[in-house]
From TrEMBL, chain A:
It comes from the Bacteria. Pfam families: BPD_transp_1 (PF00528). Belongs to the binding-protein-dependent transport system permease family. The chain crosses the membrane at residues 7-30, 70-93, 100-121, 156-179, 266-286. It comes from Streptomyces rubradiris (Streptomyces achromogenes subsp. rubradiris). SUPFAM superfamilies: MetI-like. This is Sugar ABC transporter permease. Keywords: Cell membrane, Membrane, Transmembrane, Transmembrane helix, Transport. The keyword Coiled coil does not apply. The lineage of its organism: Bacteria, Bacillati, Actinomycetota, Actinomycetes, Kitasatosporales. It is a multi-pass membrane protein. It is found in: Cell membrane.
UniProtKB/TrEMBL annotation, chain B:
Keywords: Cell membrane, Lipoprotein, Membrane, Palmitate, Signal. Coiled coil: none annotated. This is Sugar ABC transporter substrate-binding protein. The lineage of its organism: Bacteria, Bacillati, Actinomycetota, Actinomycetes, Kitasatosporales. PANTHER family: ARABINOSE-BINDING PROTEIN-RELATED (PTHR43649), POLYGALACTURONAN_RHAMNOGALACTURONAN-BINDING PROTEIN YTCQ (PTHR43649:SF33). Pfam families: SBP_bac_1. InterPro entries: Bact_solute-bd_prot1 (IPR050490), SBP (IPR006059). PROSITE patterns: PROKAR_LIPOPROTEIN (PS51257). Gene3D superfamilies: Periplasmic binding protein-like II (3.40.190.10).
Length: 300, 413
């Protein structure tokens, strides 16, 4: 009977485990191997170069700029999305009528593709001509049209990048917060009211937020991971057939051009990918320690 | 009704068989013998795909399957050349020096025996390495400055023949509704690329293989492009980018840098109310410049039928001159790669089209083979910072020169 169970286990799990190994772990190890070779236009190089690719990548000002872009983006988008989705959840949680409607309205953008949303933002809402939606609104107040994605001083392109991601993500995290809010025992609020706590900021600070700690840790981790993976909206908002401007170029876009663009420098691109993975690992470990992930309140 | 696992598997297998029978394999369908795969990037002009399938069908020595590939075509082919499942023959805006030196494409020199002189030398040169040809040019494309005659006349502005005049004209032509010039949504860094350098008399790479623009005069020319941005004369953020003439046709800009392919549509919508110019020269060594390039046909070194693939390329792009002319002019608007065909093509012999053909001969430059993608990225980043950020042109250019010199040394090693 146990053998039969093991057979069915492998029937169901085996193909996925095989796929994971073949399409994730083998390419990952292969890429690490490539990073030590001169691999222009080949995935089976012969010329071992040691750490040269790593040194070249770390010397590359464009790569270092891309890391700065990505850290700036993460430092901004994570707290903003966190605050915005929590505010949405608190608001929707208090709605007494058409509750399902409002939840659906805010959640629906999560079903939209990043590529499609980026193109709508770029071509319709935030194009730089006078009949773009944002410029039409500006025109009502006597403002001149703004080239949102092409203006670097002030850097209006950040407004476009941040709003598209907020629109796409806030609804999803709102649902997570809603689930957390509904798990809070109403007796806590009643007790607080009996003790004289005023509804609003005091209750939020001393009851709601501490009760949402578990949800908050999960949301922050997911937000940081998603910020690390930023590619689609950057690429679709700012690139054209001739390339990508040097500003707001996150590392994944840079590595895409280095390894998979016409450059086809797979060794250098792999070295960049390894460096990026190490940066992400370091940030994740630091974040987990800061959030005391995996510890209960009783742990020292 | 309960569906058993066996029924489900049988249904799945049946559906798979039906799918296989009915799938569109993209085969040309007319030929016999071994099968060849021929990749093209997606052309925007209607009819082009049907035309190339018709050509493929007419080749009797092989069963040629045409694949029409949208998206990032250059990346797709570059990745496919690393595998055995890539194309036998593929259209390429190159090939690159790394592809040639990596042995990814076959030497096609012998295909041009006896007719090499008839191919435009400007576009054949970047496909030639150490005297060997690695791509057969199909058609020539170029870019140029379109201007609206009536808008210039109303503003009392002459068609600009120097870079300074272009900057002044763009400013004069700008008002609340119309910008003076459209060089793409990035302000021109991408599409202009090396054109301002050539217009100032500086090549990207010299004939003896050195960086060609390591000169303060080159930096001064690039610095003038920032004036266009600072004067707010540039149209930025248009829904369609530089390759599409919509912004020009909608009156969003009085002048636009775009491709030859836009000319028939502009003529259809504006009649005679437009003119064409090369990018104007700048400085003592300056002269007008237009970039010329050619998609060509290359043969993958991993093809299982190398000789047949070469024979097919020779048949299609060297012998069948009727197809080359049809491909260039019946759907889009390009210049045939063979000079004899370009000279006899009626649509290219009058009006602005004739001017453009003359620009390519008199002022055309092609990207040299030693100009690598990494060097190009460094230069374009510098240009973008100069145009938009007002960065110091000399400092930016020095940094780009260093990177380009490193790249040239690498590929020549």
């Amino acid at each position: 009977m146990r053998r039969r169970g093991a057979l069915w286990f492998w029937v169901f799990v085996g193909p996925f485990a095989f796929g994971l190994a073949l399409f994730t772990y083998v390419p990952l190890l292969w890429s690490v191997g490539l990073s030590f070779f001169d691999a222009h236009n080949t995935v089976t190089p012969t010329h071992f170069t040691g750490l040269d690719n790593y040194a070249a990548m770390l010397r590359d000002a464009a790569f270092r700029d891309s890391l700065k872009t990505f850290l700036l983006f993460t430092a901004f988008i994570v707290p903003v999305t966190y605050g915005f989705s929590l505010a949405l959840a608190l608001m929707v949680n208090r709605v007494r009528w058409a509750r399902a409607f409002f939840r659906s309205v805010f959640f629906l953008p999560a079903a939209c593709s990043y590529v499609v949303a980026a193109l709508i933002w770029k071509m319709s809402l935030f194009n730089g001509v006078r009949f773009g939606l944002a410029n039409t609104v500006l025109g009502w107040f006597g403002g001149d049209p703004v080239a949102w994605l092409s203006t670097t001083d002030p850097p209006w392109y950040w407004l476009v990048i941040v709003t598209v991601r907020l629109w796409l993500q806030a609804g999803f995290y709102m649902i997570l917060f809603l689930a957390g809010l509904q798990r809070i025992d109403p007796a806590l609020y009643e007790a607080a009211a009996v003790d004289g706590a005023r509804p609003g900021w005091t209750v939020l600070r001393h009851i709601t937020l501490p009760q949402l700690r578990g949800t908050s840790v999960a949301v922050l981790l997911l937000l940081v991971v998603n910020a690390f993976q930023a590619f689609d909206e950057f690429y679709n908002l700012l690139s054209d057939a001739r390339g990508y401007p040097p500003y707001a170029r996150p590392p994944l876009v840079y590595l895409y051009y280095t390894a998979l663009g016409q450059g086809q420098n797979l060794g250098l691109g792999s070295a960049g990918a390894v460096i990026l993975a190490l940066v992400i690992a370091a940030v994740t470990v630091a974040q987990a320690r800061w959030l005391r992930l995996g510890r209960t309140d009783g742990d020292g | 009704m309960t569906i058993s696992r066996r029924t489900l598997l049988a249904a799945g297998a049946g559906a798979g068989l039906l799918t296989a029978c009915g799938s569109n394999t993209g085969r040309g369908g007319g030929g016999s013998g071994p099968r060849l795969s021929h990749w093209y990037h997606q052309y925007g002009e209607p009819g082009t795909e049907r035309a190339v399938q018709r050509y493929a069908t007419a080749f009797r020595e092989a069963d040629v399957s045409v694949q029409w590939r949208p998206g990032n075509y250059d990346q797709q082919t570059a990745a496919a050349l690393l595998t055995d499942s890539g194309p036998d023959v593929f259209e390429v805006d190159g090939p690159t020096l790394d592809q040639i030196r990596g042995g990814q494409v076959l030497d096609l020199t012998d295909l041009l025996a006896g007719v090499k002189d008839d191919f435009n030398p400007a576009v054949l040169a970047p496909k030639t390495h150490e005297g060997r040809v690695y791509g057969i040019p199909q058609v020539i494309d170029t870019q140029l400055l379109y201007y609206r005659k009536s808008l210039l006349r109303d503003a009392g502005v002459e068609p600009p023949t120097t870079l300074d005049a272009l900057v002044d004209a763009a400013r004069e032509l700008t008002d609340r509704k119309t910008k003076g010039l459209f060089l793409g949504n990035d302000g021109g860094a991408g599409v202009l690329g090396a054109t301002p350098l050539y217009a100032a008399g500086f090549p990207l790479v010299t004939d003896d293989g050195r960086v060609g623009f390591d000169d303060p005069a080159a930096a001064r020319t690039l610095g003038k492009l920032h004036r266009l941005y600072a004067d707010e004369s540039l149209l930025l953020g248009a829904p369609a980018d530089w390759s599409d003439p919509s912004a020009f046709l909608q009156g969003l800009t009085a002048m636009q840098w775009s491709g030859l392919w836009a000319l028939p549509r502009i003529k259809r919508e504006l009649g005679d109310d437009f003119g064409v110019l090369p990018f104007p020269g700048d400085g003592d060594r300056g002269r007008p410049a237009v970039p010329v390039g050619a998609y060509g046909a290359a043969v993958s070194a991993r093809s299982r039928h190398k000789d047949l693939a070469k024979a097919y390329v020779k048949w299609l792009w060297v012998e069948r001159t009727d197809y080359q002319k049809d491909f260039a002019l019946s759907y889009g608007f390009h210049i045939p790669a063979r000079r004899s065909l370009a000279a006899e093509a009626a649509p290219l012999r009058e009006g602005p089209a004739a001017d453009v053909v003359r620009f390519t001969v008199d002022h055309g430059y092609a990207r040299p083979l030693l100009w690598t993608p990494a060097g190009q990225t460094a230069y374009q980043d510098a240009l973008s910072r100069i145009i938009k950020g007002g960065a110091d042109p000399e400092r930016e250019l020095r940094s780009a020169v260093r990177k380009v010199a490193e790249e040239i040394a690498r590929v020549r090693a």
